[in-house]
Amino acid sequence: MEVKDVTIIGGGPVGLFGATMARLHGMSAAVIESLPELGGQLYALYPEKPIYDVAGFYGITGKDLAVQLIEQAEHFSPDFILGQSVESIRYLAGSEPTYELTTPTGTYRTRVILITVGIGAFIPRKLPAEGADRFEGAGVYYLMPPLDHFHDRRVLVIGGGDTALDWTLAIAPRSQHLTLIHRRDHFRGQEESIRLIQESPAISVRTPFELVRINGDTHPESVVVKEVGSDHEEEWLMDDIVGGLGFLPSLGPVKTWGLSLKANTINVDPASMATNLPGVYAAGDVAQYPGKVKLIATGFGEIGIAIAQIRSYIDPSKHGLPHSTNLKGIPR
Ligand SMILES: Cc1cc2nc3c(=O)[nH]c(=O)nc-3n(C[C@H](O)[C@H](O)[C@H](O)COP(=O)(O)OP(=O)(O)OC[C@H]3O[C@@H](n4cnc5c(N)ncnc54)[C@H](O)[C@@H]3O)c2cc1C
Q1: From the alpha carbon of 39, which atom of ligand 1 is closest?
Q2: Residues 130 and 234 in one domain
Q3: How far is the CA of 39 from the centre of ligand 1 (A)?
C-alpha cells in the first residue's frame, strides 16, 4: 500500500492550504474530506458572503476563495479523496512508524496526519419554534441559499452571534426588508457588524424577542414573535426565516482517537501545532491553544508552522521552510 508523507483530514480552507504547502515543500500528500465538495465552511455555510479579512483580497466571497484555494492546491496534484469521513486512526510502530487511517470504504497509510476538521460536521442549531420543521428548505433556512433568493422578500433572521450578524449583513441589501431578532438585549458578535446593522435603514432590530410560530400553508406567510419576559406577542408578515443560532460542534469519531481535547477542539503546542500523539498535527478551527483566534488567516499561519515541523519530523536534517521562489518543481 502506498504510504503518503502527509494525510490531511478535512478539505476546508486550512486543509487545502496545507495540501499546497506540503506538496510545495516536496512531500507527498492526500486530503480526505467527508463532504462531496472541498471548501469547508466557506463553501457549505456561506458561499456568497463576502470576506474582508483574508490577505490579498479587498473582499472575496466564500465560494470564490474556496475555488482559488482548490485551484492553487490542484497545481501541486495532491490526492483528493472526497465523500469519505475518517473514522479511525491506528499507530503502526516500527523503525519507520506510520498511521493507518480508515474510512467506511477505504484504508490509507501515512507517515504524518494533519487534522484540519474545523468544527467537524456542520449540524445547525434548529429553531425551537412551531412550524420550523415543516418549512425547512422552503422558507426556513439554516445554510444560506443563493443570495438572489432573497431579492425583494421580507426576511427574518434569528440569533445573536456572528453567524446571525454575518447573514443579516449579507442578505439585507437584497431583501425588501430584514428584521433581526435576538432573545437577549446584547449581541455577542463582532462590534463592527453590530454597528453596521444598527446604522442600516434596511434592517430592523428587535430585542429581546423570540420566534414562537411560523404560519403558512405551503410556505411561510407570517411569524408570531414574543417579547422575552412578558406575554406580549406580535405577528409580522414574512417570506423567509433564517436560523442563525450557530452550529453544534461535532468532532464525531475524532474524539475517540486518544487526542488531548478541550471541548470540541484539539490541544496543540502553538510552536509546532503538534498534538499529544506522535506524528499527528492539527491546524485551523479545530486547533486549540491560549490566545487562539478562529479566523482563516490564523489557520493559514498555523499551516506554515505545522508544515515546517512536519518536514523536519519526516527528515530531521531539514529545518524551517525555504522561501517558495527557491524551491524546485513548482508548476509555473
Ligand atoms: C457564517 C460564518 C462567517 C464567517 N466569516 C469569516 C470571515 O469573514 N473571516 C474569517 O477569517 N473567518 C470567517 N469564518 C470562520 C471561518 O470560516 C473558519 O475559521 C474556517 O472555515 C476554518 O477553516 P478549517 O479549514 O479549519 O475548517 P472548516 O472550514 O470547518 O473545514 C473542515 C472540513 O473538514 C471536514 N471534516 C470534518 N470531519 C471530518 C472527518 N472525520 N473526515 C474527513 N473530513 C472531515 C468538514 O466536512 C469540512 O469540510 C466564518 C464562519 C462562519 C460560520
Answers
A1: 49
A2: yes
A3: 8
